[in-house]
Amino acid sequence: MRERKMLPAYQRLKTDESQPDTNKKAAFSIAFGNFSLMTVSLPLFSFIFCVAYSIIFFFEESVSTHCHVWNYLPSISAAIGAFQPQAIVWQTAIVLHFIPRLTVTWMYYNFYTQQIRRNRQFVANIAIFLNLIENICLLGLSLYNSTTYYDYHKVFFCTFIVTSELYMMLSYYLNKSARRNINLDQRELKSLRLKRNLCIINVASILLATYFFIRHNDHCEGGIYTLFAFFEYIVVLTNMGFHLTSIYDFHNQHLIFDWTYGIRVHYQ
After folding, report:
1. What does each C-alpha distance from 65 to 50, 101, 128 come to in angstroms?
2. DSSP per residue over the chain, as a string?
3. Tens of pLDDT along 77-133?
């Protein structure tokens, strides 16, 4: 008799009659890939809008620095927090995507609980904690802009950078070296490669942005602040891209909500 292949516990379909009937009771269902894409799209398109709007309608004000040298790109702080309607667009997008981001964190918590070896669960818990703090700090630095609340913005921003970098590194490590099942399928391998490449580019961009920021403040050379802003953009975009790899990690799952059982994961 052919042996039936068992799925991991968090992926098994609930077929017992005592379990919720997802077809009849679901008030809302969405493929996780679509959910993740929608979540990342909110900050992505608001970021593009804020930078473009600042360049088109607030160019002189947004690219100006204390050095008064030529510059072509606004910093992220100037683009998303210094002018209207950019500030309200960015803040609205971040507030709207905050709960969905926490849902993704919850998904990874369940994923790590099932897929990561027991002797690496402590590292997995640290990664989830870092991701939680990263999400909170992103919300904080967006609501407390650098113009009006510089001290708060600085703390949130620095904490966001540190926690996001550490989370990306730990996430790559856990998926590469701490899984119970080391035989990854093609989607998992693609996710792993993207995590590695995006993490490397992100770290390199932070180092380059820091270098050009210090050089700009020390020497006031024309165009250097533009390079700082450019690598700032790369940091933001690669961070978004890293979180978007969840599409591959949960490609065959649906998020289901109903008024009786709340939010749960359905494997297909």
Report:
1. 18, 34, 38
2. -PPPPPPPGGG----STTS--HHHH-SEEEEHHHHHHHHHHHHHHHHHHHHHHHHHHSHHHHH--TT-----S--HHHHHHSSTTHHHHHHHHHHHHHHHHHHHHHHHHHHHHHHB-GGGHHHHHHHHHHHHHHHHHHHHHHHS-TTT-HHHHHHHHHHHHHHHHHHHHHHHHHHHHSBS-----HHHHHHHHHHHHHHHHHHHHHHHHHHHHHHHHHH--TTHHHHHHHHHHHHHHHHHHHHHTHHHHTTTEEEEEETTTEEEEEE-
3. 889 888 899 999 999 999 999 999 999 999 999 999 999 999 999 999 999 999 999
CA distances from residue 19 to 12, 27, 260 in whole angstroms, order as listed: 12, 16, 12
pLDDT in tens, 202-249: 999 999 999 999 999 999 898 999 999 999 999 999 999 999 999 999
Indicate the residue type of 110.
N
Give dist(CA 85, CA 129) in Å, integer: 33
Contact 46, 93 (CB under 8 A): yes
pTM for the structure as a whole: 0.85
